Amino acid sequence: NANEKIHPASMTKILTAVTALTYMTADDVITVGSELELVPKHSSLCLIKKGHRLTLFDLLTGMLVASGNDAAYTIAVNTARHIMNKTASDEEALHYFTDLMNSMAEAIGCTDSNFTTPDGFDSKNQHTTVKDLALICRYAMRFKEIREISSISKKKVIFESGENAVWSNSNKLLHRDSPYY
Q1: For residues 44, 143, 162 and 165, what is the CA-based torsion angle, rounded to 10 degrees?
Q2: What is the mean pLDDT of residues 8-25?
Q3: Helical pair 12-23 and 69-83, crossing angle rounded to 10 deg
Q4: Are 20 and 72 in contact (CB under 8 A)?
Q5: Nearest alpha-carbon partner for 64 in 126, 14, 117
Q6: Cα–Cα distance between 19 and 146 in angstroms, integer?
Q7: Which residue in 12, 38, 87, 154 has a CA-CA distance of 20 to 30 Å to 97?
């Protein structure tokens, strides 16, 4: 059923990472802001807070390892503002970023996908196919940052603003004490 429409869920975050790394560098520092108010209730979080300053690499790690929807929205809004108008509202920047995601998916070769959120939280108009997700994942492996983050089982991060966090990956294939390692 490779061409059957499905909701992409957190697999969306891979396209968010690809899109962000296309327009910013992993070393760019981002300040977490009011975009956190856009994060849906009951989301998985990496527990960043307004005012924290992190590199894009660390935000990508929080998004991909800890499945942080808060990091996904911070990445999306700040990447869009980096490209467009720095004073765009959170909603305008988010819409611009999802347009970039859809353009990126099309450029990768996706033919039946539409993304409306950077985190994959179910949305009526958001869909993809297994075939399109495979294309996105294959393309994502071109980015050394995504390859590196994909192998992280646990990471202690010290933010640029001095705070720290520990993020753990739920993928049992990455944990040495797992029978699936």
Answers
A1: 30
A2: 97
A3: 30
A4: no
A5: 14
A6: 12
A7: 154
Q: How far apart are CA 152 and CA 155, in angstroms?
A: 7
Cα–Cα distance for residue pair 131/5, rounded to 1 Å = 10
Distances in Å between the Cα of 172 and the Cα atoms of 14, 130, 152, 154, 168 are 19, 22, 11, 11, 11
The pLDDT mean for the chain works out to: 95
Spatial separation of the C-alpha atoms in residues 162 and 91, rounded to whole Å: 28
Give the model's pLDDT for residue 170.
86
What CA–CA distances, in Å, run from 14 to 84, 150, 174? 22, 10, 18
How far is the C-alpha of 106 from the C-alpha of 27, rounded, in Å? 27
Residues in the chain: 181
